[in-house]
Amino acid sequence: MNGRAEPATAPTEAFLAAGRSSVLASRDVVYEEPQGHVGEARPDPSVSTSAQALFAALLREVAPLYREAGFRRQAGSVYRPGKACLSVVNYQKSQYSSKAEVKFTVNIGIASRRLLAFFAVPDPPPETVPEYKCHFRWRIGRLLGQGDVWWSIRTGVPMPAAEQQAIARDTILPWLDAHGSDQALVRLVLERPPLKQAVLTYDAVLLHRRDTYQLFQDRLPSYQAQAARNGVMEWTLEKLAEERATWSD
C-alpha cells in the first residue's frame, strides 16, 4: 500500500478498462475469454439469405424457453436481470461463415452486480451487459465437457433446433440458475484452479464479505503483492479498506 491517508479516488474508465482487460486475459475456468468473439454478431452480406433465415428461425425456436425463464431477447442474445447477477446467452455466428453455411456457437456470461457497483462503470450500472463484457464467461463446449463446439446451418440440412432446445433447457438454464447469487460466485472463485496471471481484483472484491472475510485475509498477501505493480489492484484494496471500516462489529 502507498500509505496515503486520503480516501481512494475512483480510477478513470480507461484505467479500469486496462484492469478488466488483464483480468479477462486470465486463462482459467472462471474468467474464460471465448476466442474470436468481439461483440454481438452482425449480419454478413456474404452469407446467403437462406442460411441467415435458417439461423434466425433457430433463434425463434429457442426463444420461448428463455422467455419462460425470465429472459428477453435482443438480436442474437437473451438477457435476464437478477437480484445479484445479470445473465446473458449469446448465439455467436462465426466470421468464417460462407455463402452456403452459417457456423455458430453459444456463449454464456454472468455479470456481478457487486462488481458493477464496486467499479461504478457506468454509474448507475446497466440492467443488461453484453456477453463479452461479463465478469464470468463460458463457451457452451466447456459446460458440455466437449471442448470448443460449433454447429452448422446449411441450405437443405435440417436445423439443430431440437438439440439447441435441449441444451438450453437441460444445461444452460440450470447452470445460470445455479450461479445467480453472490454465494455461488464466491464458490466459483474458490473452486477454480490458481490463476496463471496475478490479476486478482475480482477475487478480492467478491471475497470481501463478512462471511468470507477470513478467506480474503488468507489471500491478502497475494493481493498486496499484485497491488505493488498494478494500480487497479492498489485502488481496489484502498476502497475495500474503506468499505471494511463501515462494517459494524
Describe this structure in words.
It is a single chain. The protein contains 9 helices and 6 strands; from the N terminus they run ααββββαβαβααααα. It folds into 2 domains: 1-28 and 193-249, no CATH class; 29-188, no CATH class. The two termini are 24 Å apart. Residues 1-10 and 12-48 have low confidence and may be disordered. A hairpin with a 7-residue loop joins strand 3 (85-93) and strand 4. Strands 1, 2, 3, 4, 5 and 6 form a 6-stranded antiparallel sheet that branches. With 249 residues, the protein is α+β, with helices and mostly antiparallel strands. Helix 2 (49-68) crosses helix 5, helix 7 packs antiparallel against helix 8 (213-227) and helix 8 (213-227) runs antiparallel to helix 9 (231-245).
Keywords:
disordered N terminus; six-stranded antiparallel beta sheet; 6 strands; 249 residues; elongated; alpha+beta
